[in-house]
Amino acid sequence: MASSRADTVEQYLSELSDERRAIVDALRSIVNDHLPDGYQEAMQYGMIGWSVPHELYPAGYHTDPKQPLPLAALASQKQYVSLYLMGTYCGCVERSATGAAVESAEMAWFRQAWTATGRRLDMGKSCLRIKRIDDIAFDVLGEAIRRLPVDEYIARYEALRPPATRRR
């Protein structure tokens, strides 16, 4: 499925095959069940998205300030379902004392916790690729979402932006 033109989450779900809807529903339930207060669920960029509403973060997303700051997004792709974990990825690369790039503690935790479940981790920078419900480490995903209260996520996001682009 290409980027959806659906206006609502319900419309997006109705466009999916039964098999894909089952995977998307499972992932959506994990996020919604563990989502800290303050985030909103809505369609964003043709996907189901969870974001910090403008009421809490008026600056919005730096590449398009009219959009709320995204935390996660869920999309049915041609070969798999993608769960984009921008909140977990945010700050994914830190610098060591020598200046070398190293994976952040948050991303390292996620990779280690997922691998410890015995499930294969198929992940890009922030994109978790799921082909079957059995591929999902439900507890790890729930914890990854739960670990990011709105205020902490905004603070991380702001800390990564160059000073000239901070708009809070």
Give the structure's gist in a few sentences:
With 168 residues, the protein is of the alpha+beta class.
3D architecture notes:
This protein has 168 residues and is of the alpha+beta class. The protein has one domain (9-165): Aspartate Aminotransferase, domain 1, CATH 3.90.1150.200. Helix content is 35%, strand content 20%. It has a five-stranded antiparallel beta sheet. Strands 5-6 form a two-stranded antiparallel ribbon. A hairpin with a 4-residue loop joins β3 and β4 (81-84).
SSE blueprint:
Blueprint: H1 9-14, H2 18-34, E1 40-44, E2 47-52, E3 69-76, E4 81-84, H3 86-89, E5 93-95, E6 101-103, H4 105-116, E7 127-130, H5 138-146, H6 150-160
Antiparallel strand pairs: 1-2, 2-3, 3-4, 4-7, 5-6
Helix pairs in contact: 2-5
Tell me the count of domains. 1
Q: Count of helical segments?
A: 6
User: How many beta-strand elements?
Assistant: 7
The profile of the biggest β sheet is:
5 strands, antiparallel
Order of helices and strands: HHEEEEHEEHEHH
- Return residue spans where pLDDT drops below 50 for at least 5 consecutive residues: none
**Can you tell me the CATH class?**
Alpha Beta
Strand order of the largest sheet: 1-2-3-4-7
Judging from the principal axes of the Cα atoms, what is the shape? Answer: globular
**Which architecture per CATH?**
Alpha-Beta Complex
Helix content: 25-40%
